[in-house]
Amino acid sequence: MDRVPGWLVIFGVEYLKNRDFEKAIQRTFKIARGLVEGELKELKRRSPRYVEILKGIALGYNRWSLIRDYLKVKGDNVPDPRLYTLIENLKKMSWIVEEDGKYKIADPVVATVLKS
Question: How confident is the model at residue 4 (pLDDT cuts 50, 70, 90)?
Protein backbone atom coordinates (compact mmCIF):
# COMPACT_ATOMS: atom_id res chain seq x y z
CA MET A 1 0.00 0.00 0.00
CA ASP A 2 1.55 3.31 -0.99
CA ARG A 3 -0.75 5.72 0.79
CA VAL A 4 -1.28 6.71 4.41
CA PRO A 5 -4.28 4.81 5.81
CA GLY A 6 -7.04 7.06 7.10
CA TRP A 7 -6.89 5.44 10.52
CA LEU A 8 -3.28 6.53 10.88
CA VAL A 9 -4.28 10.13 10.22
CA ILE A 10 -7.05 9.92 12.83
CA PHE A 11 -4.59 8.39 15.30
CA GLY A 12 -2.11 11.20 14.66
CA VAL A 13 -4.72 13.86 15.35
CA GLU A 14 -5.89 12.07 18.50
CA TYR A 15 -2.32 11.60 19.73
CA LEU A 16 -1.51 15.27 19.23
CA LYS A 17 -4.48 16.23 21.41
CA ASN A 18 -3.24 14.46 24.56
CA ARG A 19 0.15 12.90 23.82
CA ASP A 20 -1.22 9.67 25.28
CA PHE A 21 -0.71 6.63 23.05
CA GLU A 22 -3.32 4.38 24.71
CA LYS A 23 -6.01 7.05 24.73
CA ALA A 24 -5.25 7.87 21.10
CA ILE A 25 -5.54 4.20 20.10
CA GLN A 26 -8.81 3.77 21.99
CA ARG A 27 -10.30 6.96 20.56
CA THR A 28 -9.15 6.07 17.04
CA PHE A 29 -10.75 2.64 17.25
CA LYS A 30 -13.97 4.12 18.62
CA ILE A 31 -14.12 6.56 15.71
CA ALA A 32 -13.16 3.82 13.24
CA ARG A 33 -15.80 1.44 14.59
CA GLY A 34 -18.51 4.05 14.09
CA LEU A 35 -17.38 4.83 10.56
CA VAL A 36 -17.05 1.16 9.60
CA GLU A 37 -20.44 0.26 11.07
CA GLY A 38 -22.00 3.08 9.04
CA GLU A 39 -20.35 1.81 5.86
CA LEU A 40 -21.49 -1.74 6.60
CA LYS A 41 -25.09 -0.55 7.05
CA GLU A 42 -24.93 1.07 3.62
CA LEU A 43 -23.43 -2.08 2.13
CA LYS A 44 -26.12 -4.20 3.79
CA ARG A 45 -28.79 -2.12 2.06
CA ARG A 46 -27.32 -3.16 -1.27
CA SER A 47 -27.36 -6.81 -0.21
CA PRO A 48 -27.29 -8.36 3.28
CA ARG A 49 -25.16 -11.09 1.76
CA TYR A 50 -22.24 -8.68 1.34
CA VAL A 51 -21.92 -8.24 5.08
CA GLU A 52 -22.30 -11.96 5.78
CA ILE A 53 -19.57 -12.73 3.26
CA LEU A 54 -17.30 -10.16 4.90
CA LYS A 55 -18.01 -11.61 8.35
CA GLY A 56 -17.19 -15.08 7.09
CA ILE A 57 -13.90 -13.93 5.60
CA ALA A 58 -13.01 -12.04 8.79
CA LEU A 59 -13.65 -15.24 10.76
CA GLY A 60 -11.27 -17.21 8.55
CA TYR A 61 -13.58 -18.69 5.93
CA ASN A 62 -11.25 -17.36 3.28
CA ARG A 63 -11.70 -19.64 0.27
CA TRP A 64 -14.64 -19.63 -2.11
CA SER A 65 -15.92 -23.04 -0.97
CA LEU A 66 -15.54 -22.11 2.71
CA ILE A 67 -17.51 -18.91 2.15
CA ARG A 68 -20.24 -20.90 0.40
CA ASP A 69 -20.35 -23.40 3.27
CA TYR A 70 -20.35 -20.60 5.87
CA LEU A 71 -23.37 -19.02 4.20
CA LYS A 72 -25.15 -22.39 4.04
CA VAL A 73 -24.63 -22.90 7.76
CA LYS A 74 -26.09 -19.41 8.30
CA GLY A 75 -29.17 -20.55 6.34
CA ASP A 76 -28.38 -18.86 3.02
CA ASN A 77 -28.02 -21.25 0.11
CA VAL A 78 -26.56 -18.82 -2.43
CA PRO A 79 -26.39 -20.11 -6.01
CA ASP A 80 -22.76 -20.44 -7.11
CA PRO A 81 -22.97 -17.85 -9.92
CA ARG A 82 -24.51 -15.31 -7.52
CA LEU A 83 -21.83 -15.95 -4.90
CA TYR A 84 -19.15 -15.45 -7.53
CA THR A 85 -20.71 -12.11 -8.49
CA LEU A 86 -20.99 -10.97 -4.87
CA ILE A 87 -17.35 -11.79 -4.17
CA GLU A 88 -16.21 -10.08 -7.36
CA ASN A 89 -18.22 -6.99 -6.39
CA LEU A 90 -16.60 -6.90 -2.96
CA LYS A 91 -13.21 -7.04 -4.66
CA LYS A 92 -14.14 -4.21 -7.04
CA MET A 93 -15.36 -2.12 -4.10
CA SER A 94 -12.01 -2.81 -2.34
CA TRP A 95 -13.57 -4.48 0.69
CA ILE A 96 -11.58 -7.66 0.05
CA VAL A 97 -8.45 -8.73 -1.76
CA GLU A 98 -7.54 -12.11 -3.16
CA GLU A 99 -4.11 -13.64 -2.69
CA ASP A 100 -3.24 -17.20 -3.74
CA GLY A 101 -6.89 -18.19 -3.96
CA LYS A 102 -7.63 -16.86 -0.48
CA TYR A 103 -9.69 -13.82 0.35
CA LYS A 104 -8.96 -11.37 3.12
CA ILE A 105 -10.46 -8.15 4.36
CA ALA A 106 -8.45 -5.32 2.82
CA ASP A 107 -8.47 -3.17 5.96
CA PRO A 108 -7.47 -4.81 9.27
CA VAL A 109 -9.63 -2.32 11.21
CA VAL A 110 -12.67 -3.45 9.22
CA ALA A 111 -11.76 -7.08 9.93
CA THR A 112 -11.57 -6.35 13.66
CA VAL A 113 -14.96 -4.64 13.65
CA LEU A 114 -16.51 -7.55 11.74
CA LYS A 115 -15.18 -10.09 14.25
CA SER A 116 -16.66 -8.27 17.24
Answer: very low
Q: How far is CA 95 from CA 49, 77, 86, in A?
A: 13, 22, 11
- Strand segments (E) across 1-100: 96-99
Cα of first residue to Cα of last residue in the chain, in angstroms, is: 25
Q: Which of 71, 93, 73 is nearest to 82 (CA)?
A: 71
What domains appear along the chain, each with residue ranges and CATH number? Answer: 6-115 (1.10.10.10)
CA Rg value for the chain: 16
- Mean pLDDT, residues 51-60 taken together: 97
Q: What pairs with residue 105 in β-bridges?
A: 96
pLDDT per residue as tens digits for the range 43-55: 999 999 999 999 9
